[in-house]
Amino acid sequence: MTNPIANPVPSLSRQLGGAMFAALRFEARRSFTAPRLGAWCLLVLFPMTIVGMFRLNGDAQSTAIWSVLLFILIPEAANLLGLLLWVAPHIQSELDGKTWPYLSVRPYGRQTVYFGKLLNGVLWTIAAGLVSLTLCVFIASPLMAEPLRIWWANARLVVLSGFGYGTLYALLGVIIPKRAILIAVAYTLIFEVLVGMLPAVASEATYQFHLRCLLQIWAGLKLEQEQLRLFFSEASAWQHLAVCAAMALVFLGLGSRIVGLREYSIQDEA
Amino acid sequence: MIELRNVTKLYGTVIGVNDIDLTLAPGAYGLLGPNGAGKTTFLNLLTGQLFPSLGEVRVFGGRPNHPQILEKVGFCPGFEGMYANVSAYEWVTYLLELQGYARSQAKERARDALTLVGLSDAMHRPIGGYSRGMRQRAKFAQATAHDPELLILDEPFNGLDPIGRHDITMMLRDWIRRGRSLILSSHILHEVEAITTSFLLIYGGRLLASGSAEEVYSLLTDVPSEITLHCSHGALLAQRLIHEELVEGVTLIGDLGLKLATRRPLRVYQRLPQLCQELEISIEEVHSTDDSLHAVFSTLLRLRRGDRFSHAASSRMTKAVSGSGEDR
Amino acid sequence: MPVFDVGYRPWSGERESAWRRVGVIATTGIRLAWKNQWLRRMLFVAWLPAIYFGIAFFAYERALEEGAGETLGRAIIMRMPEGRLTVDQVFQGGTAERRPVWAFMLMTLFRYPQGLLMVMLVGLIAPPLISRDLRTRSHLLYFSRPLGIAEYVLGKATVVGTYLFLISTLPAVCLYVLGVLLSPSLSVVGDTWDLPLRVCAASVIVVIPTTAIALALSSLTEETRYASFGWFAIWVVGWVAHSSLMIMDAERLGRFAMDIPSRWTFVSLYHTLGDLQSSIFGFQVEARRLQIATAILTGLTFVSLVVVFRRMWVLHRR
């Protein structure tokens, strides 16, 4: 085999950037299958079904209730299910399929595959969330006072939830790849749900707390009862956004570091 | 090219490789050992898939999983593990892009590599529809497409038919002729012999010996061959063979079995029919241990245990084993 | 000698019964699952809620002796999930009765901490039970033996059932025994003898449909992670749907969601099981809800078993 191209490997930054984009493109193409599309449609339909039932009931509700409801259904539940399916087991899928050794012997192969698969899973999830949100608002708009405000508040939360929880689940997936989904579910239940709902300082360490506060600010939820104020904070939206970004970057950094340092076995476990 | 300094790899309490100390210059090497010997662990240490529990591994002077080192290494694992719904062309192109090549370059190289391995017609078909031989070729293509300096292959002949084995052998010989380095693992001596004359013998996680084929076979000279017989009057036959000084030692196995240790196996075979006639003995079965890998390993293990051999054989083997840390 | 003599055919002894084969599959599966350190950790954690409830039993029994039983009983019940809905039902006529308090505490242990652990445990051990056999083609080894599909499925189901028994039935029964030991006299057994049986009945209600669903998911894919995801998705989707619908109902009625009876339990497997468990422990559940719950669980069990058997039959034939 002749190689007329002298010194074909480009600079490191181009290498990394190109490789990451290649991983994303490859994973995106490979993931465009009927089962994936079917699961995507189910994720879109699930919130729509619930909202459709309310529409049939014909109960007009306040902006606050619709905002909270759509927040629970889409940025929280549907997004988390999508990330659980497409992001948490990203390393596990390569280990189970025994494709990991081919990827990890490439320069920065581990990190580029990590980023590529993470981004692919997050984009699929966010796409499902945004489509579902749009359709839900469309279905329920006759019962809503401010459909656009509700849509805009939750659309931003869909994106934030996708990236934030995506990086978190990806991190869990590289720490314990063989039980990624179970660990992600356990983490979500214990920290994001139970600890996150405590009216205490501990809840501010959860991603859900900041999403909740952003919902309150963006949807204009009024906290008239004293007890409700315990579940929110008085920080501005930018502060919460900064914390969300910082958390996502920390998860991302930790995940990419760990994936480069750990040994991964492709043997089947007992 | 490769340096292992007192490398041990533990899987919990199970030893993968045990205190391997080895330096290899650029060249082609066959890593030989039975199943479970530690070959795959050894290769995974060289490619950075595994990290040593003790000791240090250096490839091209650096850590095996360093990106600059990985640019120079091509790896062909022992199992398949390819995406079934992706074509070989897309797969090799993707891996080249991960290697750092621009897309256009990656496509061109992928095409060249797959043509070289004989997959030009099938490269655009999904890998899921490939035969075993085609998958091995695709694996070989992805390992060589970026023109690495060192190619590491783990049992590349597994599951291949004779034509497939021949084709892979030719490709590897061509690779060596181009001045590239190669480490190839197998548990079948003659497969490796067809490609390289330098061997690393591994067993139970330990590097037992390293050297050329001549040095390996010289271990067999002066070492008794073993012949096992099932016959009607084992003791009588044994008595006669000892009397005629055709055997070094005899072990009786039950009433009907004999294990002979002899330095003159050909003479024994020639004499057996005559003895059967004279003594009116019937022989139901005769077989000898394979005089290739099994015999070599048996010999080396016996040396390690301290069994007695002739002085010449002992010193040759000692030199071979203690020289495992030296450059060959 | 026949050309195709494979060695074991000349053996003329008697084979063990089919149940023995089920036992072999079950014990092997239990032993393999036991090697998982996460499972051992979960089994350890599964007993911690029983300790908490044991303390509650002790406090209640002490209060009964000192004549403050009803007050303490109400205080304990009110702090438990659904306590507000059931406290009057439990303390009818204002008389503190040991039996309904015990029943309520056992049911709460069963439904809440053990219910959550049950979901996690099954999510840990059930997905690989059949999917791994499919991926490694070891189902071919199973069915090359004189083994029927029913024996295979029953063996696998026994693995799940055994561990569910360890984390739900056994702690609840031990809690009952602890309650008896902490009470002033053994006459309490006369009032509460049926509670262990109700615990067993509630276990059966949980184990059968959940095991069937888990095995169905495991049989549908070679990838364990998809079976695992499917299992958790069922519970999450159901719970979220139920919560959302309850929020809307509460908003419409101007009350808290926790304070109104649910008319949406059928959308959530967890709440459907809860209806039947409440009924088994002697608490009133609307007859219509019970019928719907029974129909749903029976239907799910049937469909799941059909899926498993059909899948194994198709693979067996290949």
**Integer average pLDDT of chain A:** 89
Series of H and E elements of chain B = EEEHEHEHHHEHEHEEHEHEEHEHH
N→C terminal distance of chain B: 12 Å
Shape of chain B: elongated
Termini separation of chain A (Å)?
44 Å
Strand content of chain B: 25-35%
What oligomerization state is this entry in? heterotrimer
Which strand order does the major sheet of chain B show? 5-6-7-3-8-9
Number of individual domains of chain A: 1
Question: What Rg of chain A, in angstroms, do the CA atoms define?
Answer: 21 Å
Shape of chain A: globular
Number of beta strands of chain A: 0
What report would you give on this structure?
- The complex is a heterotrimer of chains A (270), B (328) and C (318).
- Chain A is mostly helical and 270 residues long.
- Chain A is built from eleven helices and no strands.
- Chain A has one domain.
- With 328 residues, chain B is α/β, with parallel strands linked by helices.
- Chain B has two domains: 26-45 and 62-218, Rossmann fold (3-Layer(aba) Sandwich); 225-288, Alpha-Beta Plaits, CATH 3.30.70.
- Helix content of chain B is 39%, strand content 26%.
- In chain B, strands 5-6-7-3-8-9 form a six-stranded mixed beta sheet, sandwiched between helices. Chain B has a four-stranded antiparallel beta sheet with strand order 11-12-10-13, with helices on one face.
- In chain B, a hairpin with a 2-residue loop joins strand 8 (198-203) and strand 9.
- Chain C is mainly alpha-helical.
- Chain C is 76% helix and 0% strand.
- The longest helix of chain C has 34 residues, at 149-182.
- Chains in contact: A-B, A-C.
- Chains A and B meet through helix 1, helix 5 and helix 6 of A and helix 2, strand 5, helix 3 and helix 4 of B.
List the SSEs and their pairings.
The complex is a heterotrimer of chains A (270), B (328) and C (318).
Chain A: H1 12-30, H2 34-57, H3 63-86, H4 90-96, H5 100-104, H6 109-140, H7 147-175, H8 180-194, H9 207-218, H10 226-229, H11 237-261
Helix pairs in contact in A: 1-6, 2-3, 2-6, 3-6, 3-7, 6-7, 6-11, 7-8, 7-9, 7-11, 9-11
Chain B: E1 2-11, E2 14-24, E3 28-32, H1 39-46, E4 54-59, H2 67-70, E5 73-76, H3 88-99, H4 103-116, H5 132-144, E6 150-154, H6 162-177, E7 181-186, H7 189-193, E8 198-203, E9 206-212, H8 213-218, E10 225-231, H9 234-243, E11 249-253, E12 257-262, H10 265-279, E13 283-288, H11 293-305, H12 311-322
Parallel strand pairs in B: 3-7, 3-8, 5-6, 6-7
Antiparallel strand pairs in B: 1-2, 1-4, 8-9, 10-12, 10-13, 11-12
Helix pairs in contact in B: 3-4, 4-5, 9-10
Chain C: H1 18-34, H2 37-46, H3 48-65, H4 69-78, H5 83-90, H6 98-111, H7 113-125, H8 127-135, H9 138-143, H10 149-182, H11 188-192, H12 194-219, H13 224-253, H14 269-280, H15 287-317
Helix pairs in contact in C: 1-10, 2-7, 3-4, 3-6, 3-10, 4-5, 6-7, 6-10, 7-10, 7-13, 8-12, 8-13, 10-12, 12-13, 12-14, 12-15, 14-15
